[in-house]
Amino acid sequence: MEFISTMLEDVLLIRPNVFRDQRGFFTETFRLNNFHQAGIRKPFVQDNLSKSVRNTLRGLHYQLVRPQAKLVMVTSGEILDVAVDLRRSSSTFGKHVSYRLSDKNNEILYIPEGFAHGFFVLSETATFQYKCTDYYYPEGERGVRWNDPEIGITWPVDAPILSDKDKNLPLLSEMSVKDLPG
After folding, report:
1. Which regions of the chain are under pLDDT 70?
2. Which residues pair with 118 in a beta bridge?
3. Catalytic site residue 96?
Protein backbone atom coordinates (compact mmCIF):
# COMPACT_ATOMS: atom_id res chain seq x y z
CA MET A 1 0.00 0.00 0.00
CA GLU A 2 1.47 3.32 -1.11
CA PHE A 3 0.45 6.64 0.53
CA ILE A 4 1.04 9.56 -1.86
CA SER A 5 1.03 13.21 -0.76
CA THR A 6 -1.09 15.63 -2.77
CA MET A 7 -0.81 19.38 -3.25
CA LEU A 8 -3.15 19.80 -0.25
CA GLU A 9 -1.57 19.04 3.09
CA ASP A 10 -2.99 15.93 4.76
CA VAL A 11 -4.99 14.74 1.71
CA LEU A 12 -3.50 11.43 0.59
CA LEU A 13 -3.96 9.32 -2.53
CA ILE A 14 -3.62 5.66 -1.60
CA ARG A 15 -2.58 3.00 -4.09
CA PRO A 16 -3.20 -0.44 -2.66
CA ASN A 17 -1.37 -3.50 -3.89
CA VAL A 18 -3.71 -5.27 -6.31
CA PHE A 19 -3.15 -8.94 -7.10
CA ARG A 20 -4.80 -9.93 -10.40
CA ASP A 21 -5.16 -13.29 -12.09
CA GLN A 22 -7.64 -15.13 -14.32
CA ARG A 23 -10.20 -15.18 -11.46
CA GLY A 24 -10.20 -11.40 -10.93
CA PHE A 25 -8.28 -9.53 -8.22
CA PHE A 26 -7.63 -9.21 -4.50
CA THR A 27 -6.58 -6.08 -2.59
CA GLU A 28 -6.49 -4.78 0.97
CA THR A 29 -8.38 -1.49 1.16
CA PHE A 30 -7.69 -0.84 4.83
CA ARG A 31 -4.96 -2.11 7.14
CA LEU A 32 -4.69 -0.33 10.47
CA ASN A 33 -0.92 -0.59 10.91
CA ASN A 34 -0.28 0.87 7.42
CA PHE A 35 -2.63 3.77 8.13
CA HIS A 36 -0.97 4.42 11.49
CA GLN A 37 2.45 4.49 9.79
CA ALA A 38 1.05 7.09 7.34
CA GLY A 39 -0.10 9.25 10.28
CA ILE A 40 -3.81 8.40 10.05
CA ARG A 41 -4.67 7.40 13.60
CA LYS A 42 -8.24 8.50 14.25
CA PRO A 43 -10.57 5.47 14.21
CA PHE A 44 -13.18 5.03 11.50
CA VAL A 45 -16.63 4.54 13.05
CA GLN A 46 -19.11 4.52 10.16
CA ASP A 47 -19.13 3.01 6.64
CA ASN A 48 -21.40 4.36 3.89
CA LEU A 49 -22.31 3.11 0.42
CA SER A 50 -24.04 4.97 -2.39
CA LYS A 51 -24.92 4.17 -5.97
CA SER A 52 -25.44 6.97 -8.49
CA VAL A 53 -26.15 7.31 -12.20
CA ARG A 54 -24.01 9.06 -14.83
CA ASN A 55 -23.77 12.88 -14.49
CA THR A 56 -24.76 12.84 -10.81
CA LEU A 57 -22.81 15.28 -8.68
CA ARG A 58 -22.91 14.84 -4.90
CA GLY A 59 -21.41 17.58 -2.77
CA LEU A 60 -19.56 19.61 -1.75
CA HIS A 61 -20.29 18.58 1.87
CA TYR A 62 -18.58 18.68 5.26
CA GLN A 63 -19.52 18.57 8.92
CA LEU A 64 -18.62 21.58 11.04
CA VAL A 65 -19.88 19.96 14.24
CA ARG A 66 -18.53 16.44 14.73
CA PRO A 67 -16.21 16.80 11.71
CA GLN A 68 -15.38 13.71 9.70
CA ALA A 69 -12.25 12.55 7.95
CA LYS A 70 -13.17 10.24 5.06
CA LEU A 71 -11.58 7.33 3.28
CA VAL A 72 -13.28 7.08 -0.13
CA MET A 73 -13.20 4.54 -2.94
CA VAL A 74 -15.21 3.28 -5.91
CA THR A 75 -16.22 -0.38 -5.98
CA SER A 76 -17.97 -0.18 -9.36
CA GLY A 77 -17.69 2.43 -12.11
CA GLU A 78 -15.69 5.67 -12.24
CA ILE A 79 -15.98 9.08 -10.58
CA LEU A 80 -14.18 12.39 -10.39
CA ASP A 81 -13.57 12.87 -6.67
CA VAL A 82 -12.88 16.32 -5.22
CA ALA A 83 -11.61 17.61 -1.86
CA VAL A 84 -11.68 21.35 -1.05
CA ASP A 85 -9.64 22.79 1.83
CA LEU A 86 -11.99 24.90 3.97
CA ARG A 87 -9.68 25.27 6.98
CA ARG A 88 -9.52 29.05 7.54
CA SER A 89 -6.02 28.80 9.01
CA SER A 90 -4.63 26.80 6.07
CA SER A 91 -2.31 28.25 3.45
CA THR A 92 -4.33 26.28 0.87
CA PHE A 93 -7.76 27.57 1.99
CA GLY A 94 -10.22 27.40 -0.93
CA LYS A 95 -7.92 25.20 -3.04
CA HIS A 96 -8.92 21.76 -4.26
CA VAL A 97 -7.59 18.50 -5.62
CA SER A 98 -9.42 16.06 -7.86
CA TYR A 99 -8.73 12.45 -8.81
CA ARG A 100 -10.43 9.86 -10.97
CA LEU A 101 -11.27 6.91 -8.77
CA SER A 102 -12.53 3.71 -10.38
CA ASP A 103 -12.96 -0.02 -10.04
CA LYS A 104 -10.08 -0.27 -12.56
CA ASN A 105 -7.41 1.73 -10.70
CA ASN A 106 -8.62 0.76 -7.18
CA GLU A 107 -7.21 4.03 -5.80
CA ILE A 108 -8.45 5.41 -2.49
CA LEU A 109 -8.51 9.02 -1.28
CA TYR A 110 -8.05 10.07 2.34
CA ILE A 111 -9.75 13.40 3.05
CA PRO A 112 -9.10 14.86 6.51
CA GLU A 113 -11.42 16.90 8.70
CA GLY A 114 -11.92 20.48 7.53
CA PHE A 115 -12.34 19.60 3.85
CA ALA A 116 -15.49 19.69 1.76
CA HIS A 117 -15.96 16.59 -0.37
CA GLY A 118 -17.89 15.84 -3.53
CA PHE A 119 -17.87 13.57 -6.54
CA PHE A 120 -19.18 13.38 -10.09
CA VAL A 121 -20.18 10.09 -11.77
CA LEU A 122 -18.37 9.51 -15.08
CA SER A 123 -19.57 5.97 -15.82
CA GLU A 124 -23.10 4.68 -16.48
CA THR A 125 -23.41 4.05 -12.73
CA ALA A 126 -20.95 4.13 -9.85
CA THR A 127 -20.95 2.51 -6.45
CA PHE A 128 -19.08 4.64 -3.95
CA GLN A 129 -17.94 3.45 -0.52
CA TYR A 130 -16.51 5.54 2.27
CA LYS A 131 -15.43 5.29 5.88
CA CYS A 132 -15.89 8.20 8.31
CA THR A 133 -14.13 9.06 11.57
CA ASP A 134 -17.32 10.38 13.17
CA TYR A 135 -21.02 9.66 12.86
CA TYR A 136 -23.26 11.55 10.48
CA TYR A 137 -24.68 14.52 12.36
CA PRO A 138 -27.28 16.39 10.25
CA GLU A 139 -27.28 19.48 12.48
CA GLY A 140 -23.54 19.92 11.87
CA GLU A 141 -23.67 19.40 8.10
CA ARG A 142 -22.57 22.26 5.87
CA GLY A 143 -21.67 22.63 2.22
CA VAL A 144 -20.42 24.94 -0.47
CA ARG A 145 -21.81 25.23 -3.99
CA TRP A 146 -20.37 22.76 -6.50
CA ASN A 147 -19.67 25.42 -9.18
CA ASP A 148 -18.27 28.17 -6.96
CA PRO A 149 -16.02 30.26 -9.26
CA GLU A 150 -13.72 31.13 -6.34
CA ILE A 151 -12.89 27.43 -5.90
CA GLY A 152 -12.72 26.84 -9.67
CA ILE A 153 -13.33 23.12 -10.00
CA THR A 154 -13.44 21.95 -13.62
CA TRP A 155 -16.37 19.55 -13.75
CA PRO A 156 -17.01 17.45 -16.89
CA VAL A 157 -20.51 18.98 -17.44
CA ASP A 158 -22.22 22.32 -16.85
CA ALA A 159 -25.57 20.88 -15.76
CA PRO A 160 -25.08 17.83 -13.51
CA ILE A 161 -27.85 15.94 -11.73
CA LEU A 162 -28.05 17.55 -8.28
CA SER A 163 -30.16 17.20 -5.17
CA ASP A 164 -32.26 20.23 -4.21
CA LYS A 165 -30.01 20.67 -1.18
CA ASP A 166 -26.85 20.78 -3.31
CA LYS A 167 -28.40 23.24 -5.79
CA ASN A 168 -28.94 25.72 -2.96
CA LEU A 169 -25.63 25.55 -1.11
CA PRO A 170 -23.91 28.93 -0.61
CA LEU A 171 -20.85 30.25 -2.40
CA LEU A 172 -17.69 30.44 -0.31
CA SER A 173 -17.87 34.26 -0.40
CA GLU A 174 -21.39 34.11 1.10
CA MET A 175 -20.41 31.92 4.03
CA SER A 176 -19.97 33.20 7.55
CA VAL A 177 -16.63 32.58 9.25
CA LYS A 178 -18.55 30.63 11.92
CA ASP A 179 -19.59 28.12 9.23
CA LEU A 180 -15.98 27.32 8.24
CA PRO A 181 -13.55 24.99 10.03
CA GLY A 182 -10.73 26.61 12.01
Report:
1. none
2. 59, 82
3. no
